[in-house]
Amino acid sequence: MRVSARRVLTGLLILGGISTLTQFLRFCLPCRQPSQGAGEPVTVLVRDGWRVSSDVPLVFVGGVPRSGTTLMRAMLDAHPAVRCGEETRVVPRILGLKLGWAAEKEGVSTKVLDRAVTAFLLQIIAGHGEPAPLLCNKDPFTLKSAKYLAHLFPNSKFLLMLRDGRAAVYSMISRRVTIGGFDLSSYRDCLAKWSGATQAMLTQCTQVGSKRCLAVRYERLVLHPRSTLQTVLKFLGLPWHEGVLHHEEAIGKPGGVSLSKTERSTDQVMRPVNLDALTRWVGHMPPDVMADMDAIAPMLGRLGYDPRANPPNYGQSDPQFLNNTQRVRTHTHTGFC
Amino acid sequence: MRGQKVSMLLGCALLCSASLLYLGLSGIDCPPPDHAHRHTWADAHLGSTNQSQASPIYYGEDTPLIFIGGFPRSGTTLMRAMLDAHNAVRCGEETRVIPRLLAMRATWSRSARERVRLDEAGVTDQVLDSAMRAFLLEVIIGHGEPAARLCNKDPFALKSLSYLARIFPQAKFVLMLRDGRATVHSMISRKVTISGFDLTSYRDCLTKWSRAVEGMYSQCQGAPEGSCLPVRYEQLVLHPEVEMRKLLSFLGLPWDPAVLHHEDLIGKAGGVSLSKVERSTDQVVNPVNTDALSKWVGHIPSDVLREMDDIAPMLARLGYDPLANPPDYARPDPIIAPKNYTLADDDFLLLSFREQKPYIPVRWRRR
Question: Which of A150, A227, A292, B345 has its CA 20 to 30 A from that of B55?
Answer without folding.
Answer: A150
